[in-house]
Specification:
Layout lengths: L2 H4 L2 E2 L5 E5 L4 E6 L2 E6 L4 E6 L2 E6 L7 H22 L2 E8 L4 E5 L2 E5 L6 E3 L6 E4 L5 E5 L2 H13 L10 E4 L15
Antiparallel strand pairs: 1-6, 2-3, 3-4, 5-6, 7-12, 7-13, 8-9, 9-10, 11-12
C-alpha cells in the first residue's frame, strides 16, 4: 500500500479544482496561475469534503506499477496545489571572474567564459530575477518547469571541483579536489 497515496490533499479556499473524471484531467487554479495534469488510467481521483482523494481503481490488481502511479498522482496534485498558492523557486549563483547574467527582456543572457554569450528563454509561467550580487532566482507555479529551467541554466557551465567555478545551486556544496602537486 502507498503511504503517500493514502493521504488526502487538502484544498485551500483560494484554490479552485476542476476535476474531469471522464478524460482523467484535473485543473488547479489559484492566485499564482493555472495547472493541469492527466493522471494514469489505473488511478481513481475524486473530490471529498474539500480535499482530493486518490486510490487504485481495481484493488485486486494492485501491483507495483499501480501503487507507484498512485503515490505519484497524489504528489503531483499536492505540488500543483502548493504551486498555485505559494509557488516554487530555485536560487542559483555564478562563481567566476567576469562571469555574469543579464536580463534581456524575456531571455536571460549568460556570460560564463565562452567566446559567445548564451541566451536562454524560460517556458511559459516561469520567471527569473537577477539580484544585485549576481544570484539568479527562478520561480513559478509548476515545480517541474522551475526545476528544469534552473537545471538548464546550471548545465551551461557546471561547477568544477578544482577551481570551484561554475553555475551552482545556492545551497549546493562542491567537494574541492587538490590539483597537481609537483615534487621538490
Amino acid at each position: 500500500m502507498s503511504r503517500i497515496g493514502k493521504k488526502p490533499v487538502s484544498v485551500p479556499s483560494s484554490v479552485n479544482i476542476d476535476l474531469n473524471e471522464s478524460n482523467r484531467r484535473i485543473k488547479v487554479s489559484g492566485p499564482k496561475g493555472d495547472l493541469t495534469y492527466d493522471w494514469h488510467p489505473v488511478i481513481d481521483v475524486r473530490s471529498e469534503d474539500g480535499s482530493i482523494v486518490c486510490s487504485i481503481k481495481d484493488t485486486a490488481s494492485s501491483d507495483k506499477v499501480s501503487r507507484a502511479h498512485w503515490g505519484t498522482t497524489r504528489s503531483r496534485i499536492q505540488n500543483m496545489v502548493i504551486g498555485v498558492t505559494e509557488g516554487y523557486s530555485k536560487r542559483l549563483k555564478i562563481v567566476g571572474v567576469g562571469w555574469n547574467a543579464k536580463d534581456q527582456g524575456r531571455q536571460i543572457r549568460l556570460n560564463v567564459g565562452y567566446c559567445h554569450p548564451v541566451d536562454l528563454t524560460p517556458p511559459n509561467g516561469v520567471e527569473f530575477n537577477i539580484e544585485q550580487n549576481g544570484d539568479i532566482i527562478v520561480s513559478g507555479p509548476d515545480k517541474h518547469q522551475v526545476g528544469q529551467f534552473a537545471a538548464n541554466i546550471r548545465d551551461q557551465r557546471r561547477p568544477e571541483p578544482y577551481n570551484g567555478k561554475g553555475i551552482m545551486y545556492h545551497d549546493e556544496v562542491i567537494i574541492r579536489k587538490q590539483g597537481k602537486v609537483f615534487g621538490s
